[in-house]
Inverse folding.
């Protein structure tokens, strides 16, 4: 089961810190690195490496809010919980898709 | 904006395997008066903690290889790092984890993603407490009347300096000083004046090289540790102090000349075993020799090998 390609027609998800000059550049970098981040999780999911995926979700949960993306933190937390509860592959897949969907829409403003 | 190269700024160490968190901390704390260091693994974190001796560690709970609980346990087991304040930073909201972290010695817990204002406030609070703890620890080792280190500190420091000098084969000297006829000075001019003499002499000795460790050993006796200093160099230092004290004018007591006797020994002159006790005893003997020879002198031990260098008037 491979997550579908990104749908760029969806509305953008701006960072709540777009107007904070202290972190604007960091938010841009965070967004620019998103494809690599998604690939990492994608590969972990395809290999069935739940531990790696849980680690990824945990890290994203811990930092996305700090870059102005509280929704990603929320969905990454749900993904981490689904893995910890050892839910079905379908449930984990659905949770992962929700995180991907948000990650792909990130934008500075 | 502060100067980040200031060396007296409190040190903050972040141990977190996420570079994204380190980036955020650097951006968020760049206006704070702290030196921020980062470690991306538990091993690197423990090494930096030992080397930098930071005031506060921001410790991620969920680290691969070794989790935050294991790291804090090691920090608290190591005398070199056990007094560092540890704040756990974690994306985990589990109350049991927070309680366990605090029970293991953490001073606080910050949830990820952190609120910047809260992070800074908690950090400032931890730094404030650390600062007060340092002052208390220092005060316990400072002599109230002279403002110099006390005997407890002298003994501890001498042990450390002797060990360092022997390990790296570096010179080390100590000076033992006793104010001459101090009891008669007290009896004649009163204890308040005696205190003033102690204070003035402490100022003379503290005004020298910053590497010298000047301590009040007790009463009118002082012990000075001079790292990386030979006996001949220590004698020059002592001679400067001797001259300054003898040349000091005392308000309301014109013409009064107060003096001190100095005994010096360096580690190289000692026969084995070269212990802190033996070093102090030798310098003390030299000081008593100076007293015997007429006071207001600098005497180096052993006097046969290095005869009296200076004779006072």
């Amino acid at each position: 089961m491979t997550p579908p390609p990104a749908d760029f027609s969806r509305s953008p998800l701006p960072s709540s810190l777009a107007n904070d000059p202290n972190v604007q550049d960091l938010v841009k970098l965070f967004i620019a690195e998103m494809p690599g981040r998604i690939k990492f999780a994608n590969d972990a999911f395809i290999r069935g490496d739940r531990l790696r995926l849980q680690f990824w979700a945990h890290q994203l949960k811990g930092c996305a809010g700090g870059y102005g993306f509280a929704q990603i933190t929320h969905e990454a937390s749900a993904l981490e919980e689904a893995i910890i509860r050892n839910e079905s592959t379908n449930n984990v897949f659905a949770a992962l898709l929700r995180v991907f969907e948000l990650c792909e829409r990130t934008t500075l403003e | 904006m502060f100067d980040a190269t200031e060396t007296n700024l409190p040190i903050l160490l972040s141990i977190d395997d996420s570079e994204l968190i380190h980036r955020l901390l650097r951006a968020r704390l760049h206006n704070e008066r702290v030196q921020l260091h980062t470690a991306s693994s538990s091993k690197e974190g423990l090494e930096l903690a030992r080397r930098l001796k930071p005031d506060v560690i921001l410790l991620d709970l969920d680290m691969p290889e070794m989790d935050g609980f294991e790291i804090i346990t090691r920090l608290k087991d190591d005398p070199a790092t056990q007094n560092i304040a540890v704040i756990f930073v974690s994306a985990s909201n589990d109350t049991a984890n927070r309680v366990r972290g605090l029970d293991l010695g953490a001073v606080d817990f910050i949830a990820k993603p952190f609120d910047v204002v809260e992070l800074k406030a908690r950090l400032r609070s931890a730094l404030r407490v650390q600062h007060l703890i340092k002052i208390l620890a220092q005060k316990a080792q400072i002599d109230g009347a002279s403002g110099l280190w006390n005997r407890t500190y002298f003994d501890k420091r001498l042990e450390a300096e002797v060990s360092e000098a022997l390990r790296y084969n570096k010179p080390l000297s100590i000076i033992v000083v006793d104010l001459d006829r101090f009891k008669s000075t007290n009896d004649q001019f009163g204890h308040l004046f005696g205190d003033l003499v102690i204070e003035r002499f402490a100022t003379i000795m503290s005004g020298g090289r910053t590497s010298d460790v000047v301590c009040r050993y007790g009463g009118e006796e002082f012990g000075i540790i001079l790292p990386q200093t030979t006996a001949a160099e220590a004698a020059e230092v002592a001679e400067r102090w001797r001259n300054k004290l003898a040349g000091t004018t005392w308000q309301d007591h014109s013409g009064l000349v107060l003096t001190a006797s100095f005994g010096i020994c360096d580690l190289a002159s000692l026969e084995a075993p070269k212990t802190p006790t033996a070093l102090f005893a030798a310098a003390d003997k030299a000081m008593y020799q100076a007293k015997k020879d007429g006071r207001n002198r600098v005497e180096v031990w052993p006097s046969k090998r290095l005869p009296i260098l200076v004779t006072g008037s």
